[in-house]
């Protein structure tokens, strides 16, 4: 009796161990499928290396299922001392790409240096500030921390806290 109970509990343990290992492999496979490049995700944080960006380039990445616009400004683009994110002496616009009216994703119109929302005609300037239509406030800036030439989205670094209190 005691032997068969021991066997049963061993079988249960063995099955549980196999299931756990299988689950771990599935998670690894799942993560590989969904990880977008060049960002690296971990526990709600997304690290983006900006060193390869061209001047004037807009990059859209995903953070916590939201589109994030990162625009590396060129000299012709107006600066915004309160909202610009300065990484390696270069100014970036960093915003969550969801219209502050009803949440549509605005398009970046490079020729006009504007973000335009097709849903109800809202417009944001190159700094993400609402300048026309129904949006009640600027595009939000996601929490970030600067780590060399990288941005860690989801972490509240001193630069983010400064923008949050001043903008
Ligand atoms: S959702 Fe963008 S203007 Fe209405």
UniProtKB/TrEMBL annotation:
EC number(s) on file: 1.10.2.2
Metal-binding recorded as keyword: yes
Cofactor: [2Fe-2S] cluster
Name of the protein: Ubiquinol cytochrome c oxidoreductase PetABC, 2Fe-2S subunit
Coiled-coil zones: none
Gene3D superfamilies (alphabetical): Rieske [2Fe-2S] iron-sulphur domain
UniProt-listed PANTHER family: CYTOCHROME B-C1 COMPLEX SUBUNIT RIESKE, MITOCHONDRIAL
SUPFAM superfamilies assigned: ISP domain (SSF50022)
Domain Rieske: 99-153
Classification via InterPro entries: Rieske_2Fe-2S, Rieske_2Fe-2S_sf, Rieske_Fe-S_prot, Rieske_Fe-S_prot_C, TAT_signal_bac_arc
